[in-house]
Design goal:
The protein is an alpha+beta fold. Helices cover about 40% and strands about 30% of the residues. The protein has five helices and seven strands, in the order βββααββαββαα. The chain has a three-stranded antiparallel beta sheet, covered by helices on one side. Strands 1-2 form a two-stranded antiparallel sheet. A hairpin with a 4-residue loop joins strand 1 (about 1-5) and strand 2 (about 10-15). The longest helix has 16 residues, at about 125-140. The termini are far apart.
């Protein structure tokens, strides 16, 4: 097993090379001090990044591409760690030795496309997807009390942050 660490002012890249696994995992973390007025925006951004980008305009296009990449899995979530919000985008795909040559490069390019080429024109997200995701988030928020697990976590955070 080989381990490399590359550090710049704006990122740390950790690479662990091994042939022990059938899959490759990539995880990108964005850590930021929590600002209450940004929480909804960050959550909204998660949904936008997973559903549309310049190259894959629709959710359907993204699903088709993940299937072409041997059912590549991509997900994004936000967690809280102390006073920080950590947005994590992760991707898992088959090791190239079990597929075709070049699949690793294509899989990494797909993740980079989602992250760095959002579907934005004139500094605005695609209006159609903006409205779809906005409505979806509204429904999630209004249905929180119907989900005991989610609701209890929210209440826990509220109680823990008092004082």
């Amino acid at each position: 097993m080989e381990y490399n660490k590359i550090e710049k002012d704006y990122y740390n890249l950790h690479i662990i090379k091994t042939d022990k696994f059938k899959t490759v995992n990539i995880k990108v973390n964005f850590k930021r001090k929590i600002k209450k007025n940004e929480l909804t925006i960050r959550n909204f951004l998660n949904h936008m990044l997973l559903n549309t980008c310049k190259k894959y305009k629709t959710s359907r296009d993204i699903v088709i591409q993940t299937e072409e990449l041997y059912d590549l899995g991509v997900r994004i979530n936000t967690t809280k760690s102390g006073n920080y919000s950590i947005m994590s985008m992760s991707e898992i795909f088959l090791n190239e030795k079990y597929t075709e040559e070049g699949i690793t490069k294509k899989s990494v390019e797909f993740l980079m496309e989602l992250l760095f080429n959002p579907n934005v024109e004139d500094n605005k997200f695609d209006e159609n997807y903006f409205e779809i995701i906005k409505q979806s988030l509204k429904e999630d928020i209004t249905s929180i009390k119907e989900n005991p697990r989610k609701y209890s976590l929210i209440r826990l955070y509220e109680e823990m942050s008092k004082g």
